[in-house]
Amino acid sequence: MIPTSDFLTKKRTGGRHTPEEICSFIKAYVSGEVADYQMSAWLMAVCINGLDPDETVALTEAMIASGETIDLSTLPGITIDKHSTGGVGDKTTLVLGPLLASAGLTMAKMSGRGLGITGGTLDKLESIPGFSTQLTKEQFLAQAASIGCVLAGHTGNLVPADKKIYALRDVTATVECISLIASSVMSKKIACGASTILLDVKAGSGAFMKDIESARKLARTMIEIGNMMGRKTIAAITGMEQPLGLAVGNSIEVAESIETLRGGGPSDLHELCIELGALLLEVTGLSESHAAAKERLEGLIASGAALEKFREVISAQGGDTRVLDDPALLPQVAYSRPILAGSSGFIQSVNAYAIGRAAGMLGAGRQRKEDTIDPSSGVVLKKKAGDSVEVGEEVAVLLYNNAACVESAAEAVSSACKIGPDTPAVSPLVLETLGF
To answer: What is the pLDDT of residue 176?
Structure first.
């Protein structure tokens, strides 16, 4: 390893690291030989001067090598993974996992908790009474083999370098760097072992990437990493100008996912799950065309096969399967407050970030890792962009147990729902696909 000061100077002055240099630096950081302040200096230099594709792959490989990996090669069928870059009301994993497993694919997915405006996939799942997301590696693999779907938290010591580095990025203004984001995401996806990876890259007000150009650049970088490391990787850039579905919270998103698996649910959530699922059936060769893939997935929902697969998942992970038949068994709030339209017309837009922020105020998210989430709180939209509305009609409902921030949340939701006289143009859900 070159001296740390020389390593830092090289990137500060726009130089290029060799894979060996990056591997040694990451290894030294995990072992404690490189201090946090030195890593912070390098992260800032990377944000300013960037990493080229080879450096980004080398960083990804070094982070994977810092811990354990999951070997899915012994599992039956084709193993898949899906990652979303985050969005408001994004509960697609809860629908896609059972749906694709019922189609013959194996989704062995490790997810995270939410940090910010709303909860993550684990927070949603844990709102199901008794549901355990903490599985051993042996339990994780056994369930994937027997059921074809397992939705759990990270097991063992996967990618410890990323955990340490991300904690620094969060407090040193070095989060917004394409190479660092891509290597962080792909190190975890590749360490989890799936042979095929679908990336749902969000773009819009409720997404990390606010515009399609940034989303496209991130998607292409992650696809390049995945393909260079032997994983078939595809991406869909999907819109996040308004929340996905109607529910933004935790237990209420589970209820919405259940309704979608029953063949109902909001049209946009249903459509996106079918579209993303069809992309995976196509790329894995289980369907000859996108249209045929969509038809097959619609059939699995209509027959009840997808819902029954979710029942198997919930049962295997200790959850109360009665919630599938009676969502009222999910955590419920004590209070609700309607948000009424101040004028008549058409909903022009529903700012996703503002809705997510309001849900967070009501208790549906956490600002620090140690914060406790209220699984029952959140926001339910009654109207979406393009819908007509009359003055005094409900546009949303706040659900809460603690009234401390209700006024602020109400103001945020009211401001988020813009009303105008004309029917607006609504952007498609899937803006672009890459990697085919």
So the answer is: 83
